[in-house]
């Protein structure tokens, strides 16, 4: 589906280190100086899903294809970016293009890593980026607000609704708050959709902590968690350097021993990728056959024909029906044939809303 999550943060907080860890198709340069990342690096990331492996173990296909999302490593931002400071214009343009934001915040002390912002303060660091995004959004909203205000003499109901939504957004941003905190209906969101507001995007905060705090967090991550209460955002605690080391290990045995040493059952990266996936309101359905067992990404709430379109647009155009087996039933009975024999295969039509984990086969005619 081409969905992207952009890694953002102040310079030297561990963005590129995180990108190197999560990306399985690109390596970003990670160095201890500002603007190390100028052009955004893009990497395709497999979404970890043990259900895919369990289905493959039953079907024994020729290949296994996980679903993926794109992770974008965006240049570090500095105060004044909304006015073009540093690489501000490029940074903000790159954020505008992504679907979700992964905001890395430094939650550890290390005098060897450069920091121009003074003592470690995750809330202040968060606010620096929030402010720059809010100022840019305010600029966009204000321009449209003024244009709409001039046209209000007409009796256009749609225009009046747009005006009221813009007014609410303007007042909210002027208070130093993000648009995602504003409870906008789907109708309201349509009124501002053309602005591609930066602070409307869903956010996952990554508290980059020291090794000693990987499992429990620390005073810095605790403060950060408190500061995002009510923001409709998610947060994960991890040590980016440790995750990068795990990602570089090619031997599964070495990786397992390394994680055991740090009392980890799985890389925190897996949790991060899954959290980003959920943040975008995505879910997964599967196709399972001898040629391949494959995971497909769709939006929550999609109906069967829409879900079929991610395989091929012809599947949606000529949709007839979908054969559906729930994941749990497939695992319990062990095969499509056994599910069919035991009445666990359902025939669904155009109005069926696909559920996470459905194993599907589409019938179509073009």
What this model shows, in words?
- This protein is α/β, with parallel strands linked by helices.
- About 40% of the residues lie in helices and about 20% in strands.
- It has helices spanning about 15-20, 50-60, 90-95, 120-150, 155-175, 185-190, 220-225, 240-250, 250-260, 270-280, 305-310, 315, 325-335, 335-340, and strands at about 5-10, 40-45, 65, 70-75, 100-105, 205-210, 235-240, 280-290, 290-300, 320-325, 345-350, 360-365.
- The strands form three sheets. Strands 2-4-1-5-6-7 form a six-stranded mixed beta sheet, sandwiched between helices.
- Strand 8 (about 280-290) and strand 9 form a beta hairpin.
- The radius of gyration is 23 Å and the shape is flat.
- Residues about 25-40 have low confidence and may be disordered.
Main sheet overview = 6 strands, mixed
Q: Over the alpha carbons, how many angstroms does the gyration radius reach?
A: 23 Å
Give the proportion of residues in helices.
Answer: 25-40%
- Share of residues in strands: 15-25%
State the total count of DSSP E strands: 12
End-to-end separation in angstroms reads 22 Å
In order across it, which strands form the biggest sheet?
2-4-1-5-6-7
Low-confidence stretches: 24-39
Number of helices: 14
Mean pLDDT rating: 86
Q: What is the global morphology?
A: flat
Which structural class fits the helix and strand makeup? Answer: alpha/beta
